[in-house]
Predict the structure.
Amino acid sequence: MKKIFLTAAGMAAIIAIATVACQSPAVEPAVAEATAAPEDPVKRGEYLVNTIGCDDCHTPKKMGPQGPELDLENRFGGHLSTHPIGPIDTSVLSKGWALFGPELTVAVGPWGITYAANISGDSTGLGNWTEEQFFRAMREGKYKGLATSRPLLPPMPWRNFAKLKDEDLRAMFLYLKSTKPVNNVVPAARQL
Ligand code: HEC
């Protein structure tokens, strides 16, 4: 019995030491962060937008030697209305498949056909949006960020973005608004 008690006490001591040991390195970055100059929100937004990968769907692509490359002239312009799509083979839908256009800016599935939106700084993009609209689009999946509008359809992964912190969403919005305006009215989503 005594031996068991000692073992338990010994373990408690080890856990206590381990806890202190694990905590101390974590303290340093927190202190460093608190003393660092606050990050420019536009720079933070650029970092987030670039790493989360909004370009994948919202920037048109050009075919290069290594495969599709971002069309930086039209960055964040969404599906370009000047790029017509070919005939859609809807027979694949009943076989359990969905389709993506070659620039990954247009998708077809059981939800119909959707075109990636213009999220550049232009008035045909997010240029005239309020922060409230952006939050509603990203958190509640509302088209144009309006309370009464239709839900945003796949493949826009807004449910993931809904979990971003307020300050991160705000930073992303400020960055997107500051991007080169791409004048492009994206075709409307529709049922097939
Ligand atoms: C996998 C593809 C995909 C990715 C990645 C993606 N989006 Fe989208 N997004 C879409 C599509 C498609 C639509 C249009 C959906 C519709 O019309 O219902 C859309 C719509 C939007 C809208 C609503 C625009 C409007 O006019 O209502 C906003 C805002 C938006 N996306 C922002 C972003 C941001 C910011 C990112 C990166 C953090 C991002 N999206 C990443 C596909 C994507």
Summary: Residues 49, 52-54, 56-58, 114, 116-117, 119, 137, 143-144, 152-153, 155-157, 161, 172, 189 surround heme C (CB under 6 Å). DSSP finds six helices and five strands in the chain. The chain has two domains: 1-36, 41-177.
